[in-house]
Design a protein that fits this description.
Elements: H1 8-12, H2 15-45, H3 47-54, H4 59-68, H5 73-88, H6 92-109, H7 117-135, H8 146-176
Length: about 180
C-alpha cells in the first residue's frame, strides 16, 4: 500500500517555513481584527483611505515569503490567515478573497529564488493593482468617478509601497537577529 499523494507545494515546503508561515498568519490575523473597525468605517466614506489602511493586511504574507525563502509561503500564510479570520470575523469569507489574491500574486512574481528589492517592489505593485481590481466590485455607484478611482489606485500603490519598505526592514532586522538563516 502506498500513501496518498501529497500536493506538490506542501511536499516541497520545509516544515520550518510552514511553522513560520503559521506564526506570521496568527499575527496577521490579530492585525486584521484590530484594523477591522477602522477599515469598516473608512471603506464607504473614503475608499482611498481604506485602500491605504487595507494594505496592512498583506504585510506578513509578504514577510513570510522573504524570511522563509520558500516559494509559495505568501499564499500559505495568506491562506492560514484567511482560515483564522473566517473563524473570528463575520466578514471572514469576503476577506479571504483579497488575502489569498495578495499571497498568490506575490508568490507568482517572486516564485523562484530570493526576493530581491526589485522583485519586492514589482510584487508589491502587482498586489496593489490586483487588489484595486478586486475592490472595484465593492464600489458604490457614487464612488465610480475618475477622481475616486485614481485616488484609490494611488492609495493601494502607496499602501503597498509602505508595506514593502516595512517588510524589507523587518526582514533585515530578523536576519541580523539570526532568524531566517
Amino acid at each position: 500500500m502506498s500513501a496518498a499523494p501529497r500536493p506538490a507545494l506542501a511536499a516541497s515546503t520545509p516544515t520550518r517555513a510552514l511553522l513560520v508561515s503559521a506564526a506570521l498568519a496568527a499575527v496577521q490575523t490579530g492585525i486584521f481584527l484590530a484594523l477591522l473597525p477602522v477599515m469598516a468605517a473608512a471603506a464607504p466614506a473614503a475608499p482611498p483611505l481604506y485602500a491605504v489602511l487595507a494594505s496592512a493586511n498583506t504585510a506578513l504574507p509578504l514577510l513570510a515569503r522573504i524570511v522563509t525563502r520558500a516559494a509559495g509561503t505568501a499564499t500559505i500564510t495568506a491562506g492560514i490567515t484567511a482560515i483564522m479570520i473566517v473563524a473570528f470575523s463575520p466578514i471572514g469569507l469576503l476577506s479571504a478573497i483579497p488575502l489569498l489574491t495578495a499571497g498568490i500574486v506575490f508568490d507568482l512574481v517572486t516564485w523562484k529564488g530570493p526576493v530581491t528589492t526589485l522583485r519586492l517592489t514589482v510584487g508589491a505593485a502587482a498586489v496593489a493593482v490586483a487588489l484595486f481590481g478586486i475592490s472595484l466590485a465593492a464600489f458604490s455607484p457614487e464612488h465610480l468617478t475618475p477622481f475616486v478611482l485614481t485616488a484609490t489606485l494611488a492609495g493601494r500603490l502607496i499602501g503597498e509601497s509602505v508595506v514593502a519598505v516595512l517588510v524589507s526592514t523587518i526582514a533585515r532586522m530578523l536576519r541580523r537577529a539570526g532568524v531566517g538563516r
